[in-house]
Amino acid sequence: MGAAETRRTRRRAIPWLLLALWIGVLALASPYASKLADVQRNQVTDYLPASADSTRVAKIQHRLPGGESTELVVVYHRDGGLTAADRAAAGERLATIARQHRLTGTPRGVPSRDGTTLMYPVASNEPGTDEKKRDALVDDVRRIAGDAGDSADTKGTAGLTVEVGGPAALSTDASEVYAGLDGPLLYTTVAVVAVLLILIYRSPLLWLVPLVVAGSADFLSMGVAYGLNQAFGTTISGQSQGVMTILVFGAGTDYALLLVSRYREELRRHERPYDAMRAALRGCGPAVLASSGTVAAGLLCLLAADLNSSRGMGPLGTVGVLCALATMLTLLPAVLVLLGRRVFWPLVPAYGSTPKARRSLFAAMGTSAGRRPRTVLAAGAVLLGALALGALNLPGALKQQDTFVDRPESVAAIETLARAYPERSAQPVDVITPADRADATLATVRGTHGVVSAQRGRTGGGWTEVSVITAAPPQSAAETATIKELRHALKGSYVGGPSAQQLDLLDTNARDRLVVVPIVLLSVLLILVALLRSLVAPLILVAAVVAVWGAALGIGGLVFGPLLGLHGTDPGLGLLSFVFLVALGVDYGIFLMHRMREESRSIKEHGAEPAAAALTALRTTGGVIASAGLVLAATFAVLVNMGLVPLVELGFVIAVGVLLDTFLVRTYLVTSASVALGRAVWWPGRLSRAPEPVAPRPAPEPVS
């Protein structure tokens, strides 16, 4: 066997070896990927920093006698007024609950002034911090309490409504929504990506290959995420896991589109698929590596966040992007090479053929931007600025009961209580104070403006629990003022509970924005400077993505309340949407600018105008960037149908931002800026300097 034949044999073996390697890797990841749902946590305290007052309260409550308390409110209501049979049935049901579960006290009914409602606060230490036990308790309380409702005609209580609310019921309802996300989110994402790939590739087989590879990357990322949780305690929430899946399919499909497009070109130049794939990887591999590295670096900046949920999303998002990168640069090429040219059927790129010339939409768009670049740039900047003003119309901070798209029972209970008990809150504020100062603390609390009642709770470990009822509704401005006044007056004590947790969530997100945003901008800018060897071009890209973020938030402000009927803005929306849009937007900017730089180098050698480089780069990469942008926007748009307002808002803003970035900023504004600046866009690099004039060759001397 000759040397050439040996090389061909090795080349044929490499794709098979890569395929076998990935089968082994996925087999190893399988037992860990299946356990990721078991370590998912969605309690409010898991989203808060350890230093927050409300988090300290929850931790101390866990150490008190009986452990952490599970608090519920059972609400009986009849519009025309409760009857004697209603009250008797309610009392009987609550007695049954007390017999079957270990409660911290005997439930006592609190009637409303108008006689329509009877409220029973219920607390139990039975579940502790076990979410499954908590959910089981809530479900059982709902089952027992509901026996006195509409179906109990034999007791004369038909028409009586029964609702179970309270912090534990809210958490259970949220857990049910998050638990239901995994399947629908994955299936919907796969379906959306499949439809788009079929439309883009117009092939009955080719669309399936990137989709299967992306699914493999998602499976691997779940296994790696579980490993991070076990090794470093990384917070895994339903939100972060859902976003990781979206990133795997969105970013992975983007990389696949770029690679397949280049591979199709190279198949016309190379006879063997293996050689064509090598050329494709050499051509687009650096851009894919640089763009994925920028996304990963941007997401890792979330580690600087103080909020557990944001900090946990950074590593999970990075895992998703890197798993997508690894599969798309190894497994996808191997499968494509093994399938050969027939995978492109019916539009098979034959060796030596020339693609059919078609009028390019992006060539026309680039030409229009190149004619009056300054006018286009100014008009685009005014448009983005006007859209950003819509952010002033964003609804206020999202309340806990407004986090659901569809109203669950716990939210219905809150609304019933707010109508029936306008003079008091149905949700206690918890105060943890040193045991030796309990009497003084109790006196201070009772003398605080806005407090209706306060009573001593459990004592243990040097701490005493005080339960406080305020006059204002939960998470209202008046209740927030009372909580702040309590914290100011009670030095050395901690104020917690659901409303205090939401207040800490808002404050921590504000702090994280001030810390994380500059770090993201600086890290992305440094990577772009190193990649593009320029200061001006990176500044243009970063300014563009920041403008896109502002405009996308502004569109959200015009849509959330008026059109979608959302009653609040998630406190983490600004930070998370900024990180994702900056990282992903720069991702597409790298594709465009990297090609522009290559064209600039080629044009400079021939002494042509640098504006041609920008138009050529847009013409050659515009189609791929548009396809990738559509796929990424569609995958994030899947979150809009996921039933939780924070996911709806995040998915909407990122999807809109990606579309703005793809079809306005990259196409018109970045291209126009590059044309207007000319060589200055590459300042202070070598490409910013004008080429030296080429000396004419001397005429040959005549031969005598």
At CATH level 2, the architecture of the largest domain is Up-down Bundle
- Strand percentage lies at 5-15%
Q: How many helical stretches?
A: 20
The run of helices and strands is HHEHEEHEHHHHHHHHHEHEEHEHHHHH
Q: How many separate domains?
A: 4
Shape: elongated
Unreliable spans are 151-155
Report the radius of gyration as a whole number of Å.
31 Å
The average pLDDT is 85
- Biggest sheet overview: 4 strands, antiparallel
Find the structural class using helix and strand composition.
alpha+beta
Helix content: 55-70%
What CATH calls the topology of the largest domain is Multidrug efflux transporter AcrB transmembrane fold
E-strand count: 8
Distance between the termini: 60 Å
Explain what you see.
- The chain has 704 residues and is an alpha+beta fold.
- It folds into four domains: 1-51 and 183-357, Multidrug efflux transporter AcrB transmembrane fold (Up-down Bundle), CATH 1.20.1640.10; 64-177, 2-Layer Sandwich (Alpha-Beta Plaits), CATH 3.30.70; 361-406 and 514-690, Multidrug efflux transporter AcrB transmembrane domain (Multidrug efflux transporter AcrB transmembrane fold, Up-down Bundle), CATH 1.20.1640; 429-496, Alpha-Beta Plaits, CATH 3.30.70.
- It has helices spanning 3-33, 53-63, 84-100, 131-146, 167-179, 182-201, 208-232, 238-267, 273-300, 308-339, 361-371, 373-388, 409-420, 438-446, 477-489, 498-532, 536-559, 573-606, 611-637, 645-677, and strands at 70-77, 110-111, 117-124, 161-165, 429-434, 451-460, 463-470, 494-496.
- The strands form two sheets. A four-stranded antiparallel sheet has the order 2-3-1-4, with helices on both faces. It has a four-stranded antiparallel sheet with strand order 6-7-5-8, with helices on both faces.
- Helix 8 (238-267) packs parallel to helix 10, helix 9 (273-300) packs antiparallel against helix 10 and helix 19 packs antiparallel against helix 20 (645-677).
- The longest helix is centred in the last third of the chain and has 35 residues, at 498-532.
- The relative contact order is 0.11.
- Residues 151-155 have low confidence and may be disordered.
